[in-house]
Amino acid sequence: MSVKVYVPRDATALALGAERVAQALAAEAQARGEAVTLVRNGSRGLFWLEPMVEVETPAGRVAYGPVKARDVPGLFEAGFLRGGRHALGQGLTHEIPYLARQERLTFARVGVTDPLSLDDYLAHGGYRGLRNTLGLAPADVVKAITDSGLRGRGGAAFPAGIKWQTVLKAEGPQKYVVCNADEGDSGTFSDRMLMEGDPFALIEGMSIAGVAVGATRGYIYLRCEYPHAHHALNAAIATAYQRGHLGTDILGSGKRFDLEVRLGAGAYICGEETSLLESLEGKRGQVRFRPPLPAIKGLFGQPTVINNVMTLASVPVILDKGAEYYRDYGVGRSRGTLPFQLAGNIKRGGLVEKAFGLSLRELLEEFGGGTRSGRPMRAAQVGGPLGPYVPAARFDTPLDYEAFAAMGAMVGHGGITVFDDTVDMASMARFAMEFCAAESCGKCTPCRIGSTRGVEVIDRLVAGQQPDKQEALLRDLCETMTHGSLCALGGLTPGPVLSALNHFPEDFSKPRQAAA
Amino acid sequence: MKAHLQEQPLRPMPAARPLAAADRARVLEVIGRLRDLPGALLPVLHGVQDALGYVPAGAVSLIAAELNLSRAEVHGVVTFYHYFRTSPPGKQVLQLCRAEACQAVGAAALEGHVKRKLGVDFHQTTADGCYTLEPVYCLGNCACGPSLMLGDELHGMVDAPAFDALLQEVQS
Question: Does domain A329-420 have CATH number 3.10.20.600?
Answer without folding.
Answer: yes
